[in-house]
Design goal:
Length: 213
Amino acid sequence: MMKNNTQNGCLYQILLSHGESLEMNRDAKTAIILLLQGIFYKSDNEKAFYELLYNSYSAVSEYFETIGLELVIEENDGYAYLKNRVFEEGEEALPKLIKSRELSYKVSLLCVVLRRKIAEFEVQSEHERAVIGKEDIKGALELFLGTTFNELKMQKEIESTIKKVEDLGFLKKLKTVEEAYEIKPSIKAFVNASWLDDLDKKLQEYKEAKVWS
């Protein structure tokens, strides 16, 4: 199953109190808070804060390294996030501030499906955003569910799964297109190459297992 990283809320106080000693301005503090809340995008009404991070990457990176975090900016896709720093041999490692938690089987499955869709989009489409309809999502998931005597329950499970992936930040409901979602490029960083190397095998295992807990 996939793991997702979640930030510890106490980091707000740690970083912001440290920020006071560095005489950080309000915009810098806001950028830090956005990072601690999770992935944030250049295009999501936060362009100024994204550019602040981009232009001050070295200083901000050093700022987070002191507490064992690494700032990642994906310039091509326009988003930034934090992850635990990998300590070199001989360094004194710090406790991990970003905890990993297991995702359910169905959420993991949908993430893999979306990762494949965005890979296909990048090869085949000239549009800027990868968009997928709710019915397409349902159809992809139903391939791995098989037949059921309780169609209503299955549909509710699919709706719940979509909502959970939205909450993770990998899907964003479109306001201009009914029943459609943008697949956010950050999913590429979290469903990594090792998943894709053996994608067909993984999906077949999911289908045969039919575990939706």
